Amino acid sequence: MKRTSPSTVVAFLVVALAAGFVFNAVLASTQRPVAVPSITLGLVLLAIAAIVISLAVPVFRVARGRTKERIDAYYATRVVLIAKASSLSGALFGGFVGGMLIYMLTRGVSVPASSLVPTVVGVVGGVVLLVAGLVAEHMCSIPPEDGDSDKGQPQQARL
């Protein structure tokens, strides 16, 4: 499995950012209140990021030879898939809520703290989930061996 490419992550971020901005702009143009995410969204995204990293730690230890225990290949594969999904989901959530935040901050009126704080926490949660997914994906790769044809390119763990 290939690693998540930076261009994919950036594309997800940009599309979600634009969607979040347009979403709030459409709501405001139709005389409806703009959407404000719940603070629990950001907190849940932070919790998911911690879980993803904690799931990747055993695979990291086996892949780097720090433990003699064996790990189930299906477990390692699932962790890699969860890490990849988390990075893309973090890009989507962080980008969408970031677009909502940009819309709020570009208006001529001041934004109350009750709207600003949950939105900022949502953006931070999305970005942390994105980073945690990329880090967990990196943790699940094995370093190249001396005889590998792809010098310097780590491969996903095949345990």
Structure description:
The chain has helices at residues 6-29, 39-63, 73-106, 113-139, and strands at residues 141-142, 155-156. It is mainly α and 159 residues long. It has a two-stranded antiparallel sheet. Helix 1 packs across helix 3. The protein is elongated. The two termini are 13 Å apart. The mean pLDDT is 88.
Features:
two-stranded antiparallel sheet, 159 residues, mainly alpha, single chain, 4 helices, elongated, 69% helix, 3% strand
Order of helices and strands: HHHHEE
**Major β-sheet annotation:** 2 strands, antiparallel
Radius of gyration: 19 Å
Helical stretch tally? 4
Percent in helix: 55-70%
Beta-strand segment tally: 2
Mean residue pLDDT: 88
Short description, anyone?
The chain has 159 residues and is mostly helical. The chain has helices at residues 6-29, 39-63, 73-106, 113-139; strands at residues 141-142, 155-156.
Summarize the helices and strands and which ones pair or pack.
Layout: H1 6-29, H2 39-63, H3 73-106, H4 113-139, E1 141-142, E2 155-156
Antiparallel strand pairs: 1-2
